[in-house]
Amino acid sequence: MKYSQIFTAALSMLGTPVLAAPSNFAGSNLYYAAGLTEDQQTTLFTGLQSAGVKVLRVWLDGQSGQPKGTAIQAYGSLEGDTPESWDDTVLNRYDDFMVNANKYGIKLLISIHSYNALSGNSDFYGKTYGTGDFYTSDQAKDQFKQRISHVLDHTNPSTNKKWSDSSEYIFAFEAQNEAMHDQENPSALTQWQCEMAEAIRGGLASNDTLVTTGGGAWLDNSLLDAYFTCDALDIVAAHAYGTGDFDTDKIKGYVQKATESGKKLIMQEWGACYFSSDNNRCDNTGALDSATRDSNLKKWYSSIAEAGIAPFYWQILPNEDPHSDWDYEVGIGGVNWDALKEASAGVNQTESAFDWSGYLL
Questions:
Q1: 3 state DSSP class of 174
Q2: Strand ranges in the chain using DSSP code E only, listed in sequence order
Q3: CB contact at 8 A, 28 and 53
Q4: Please, which residues bridge with residue 53 across strands?
Q5: Which of 248, 296, 249 is nearest to 276 (CA)?
Q6: Which of 44, 230, 272, 336: disulfide with 296, CB 3.0–4.6 Å?
């Protein structure tokens, strides 16, 4: 028995209250969740619940067709080709979706925009400003703040509450997924990130809903110094696919930095490649041996959780994964599902470096 365990046991025998260490939790991602049918939602939420998932990260970009083999109900982007040309279909879809998720003990982390939409010119931001001026133009910033306000002011008819006052259903908001992905102008990026975080924080009804970044291309460029000094940010989010970024000691260095800065840290995106290629490239070089991938899932879930942070897997699907390029996904009931489910559920039995009480169901 460790000395700390003997000391804790002694305190308990003396009747001295002993505070339990905060519990960790698991999360996941599904960028096209707004397109799921009721049956697909049931499959997804039942599977996520069995895997101990407490938070699901979703996006507001339009989607159609069969992304990742999921036959979805199409929906458009929140904004079209002109400023404030609102199509609230995606918001309306998430109204019912978040209420349904709540029944399974799951909250949403909502990404208000994505760099993917910007670089793909799928709305007026990319077409007008590109991936550079978007972060520096005062007009673009003002227009994006209107987007933030529009999202936060949206009222869910199922609850009669604005999203800004829906902490029972919404864990956190982020301004953009992987903002300025290539980081051509880091100082402009960090200024933009904090300014948009301030806009989100200013629009929320309380501190019961958190404000986070949307990660970067890998661990180090997700966790820029300026994020740890931005008062409006509660969480600094990491994205990582290179196996070196799953190293427990490496992550712990950032955990200490977050703790000293009064921030929380999550691994908002990570994954174990289905193919035999390098994990951070995940090219279709042929399927990795299934047992090896099972082992990778368990090993990397464990190494991230042992650092005291929550791992959000990219992605858990409501159907078997069709295994296209850049394939980290695992389908509920499909290959590697049992290993992922076991490893994800196990995260909730580990200790967290951060106190999440009051933010989870």
A1: strand
A2: 26-29, 53-59, 107-111, 155-156, 161-162, 170-174, 210-212, 235-239, 264-270, 310-313, 316-317, 330-331
A3: yes
A4: 26
A5: 296
A6: 272
The three-state DSSP-derived secondary structure of 182-195 is CCCCHHHHHHHHHH
The H or E element that residue 338 is part of is helix 337-347
170 token code pair? 């919404």
Q: Residue 18 has what pLDDT?
A: 53
Any alpha helices (H) in 234-288, and if so which ranges?
248-261
Identity of the amino acid at 192: W
pLDDT digits (tens, 9 = 90+) for 5-24: 443 444 445 555 556 789 99
Distance CA 247, CA 28 (A): 20
Return the residue matching tokens 């041996």. Answer: 289
Residues 6+ apart with CB under 8 A from 361: 54, 102, 105, 106, 107, 168
pLDDT of 17-73, one tens digit each? 556 789 999 999 999 999 999 999 999 999 999 999 999 999 999 999 999 999 999
Report in angstroms the alpha-carbon separations of 115 from 126, 188, 216: 9, 15, 10
Query: Parallel, antiparallel, or unpaired: how do β-strands 161-162 and 155-156 relate?
Result: antiparallel
Residue 301 pLDDT exceeds 50: yes
